[in-house]
Amino acid sequence: MTATQRKKLKQIVSLKKRTQALKNQEKSAERQAKRLRTKKLIRLGLLCELTGIIYLPQELVLGHLMNFNRTFTPTMIDEGKRIFESLDQYDSTKANSLTTDDRRHRNHDLITFGALFEIANLDKPLNVLAGYLTQITTSDQYYKNTCILEGTTYFLKLKQEKHQAKKELLYF
Question: What is the structure's pLDDT at 117?
Answer without folding.
Answer: 94
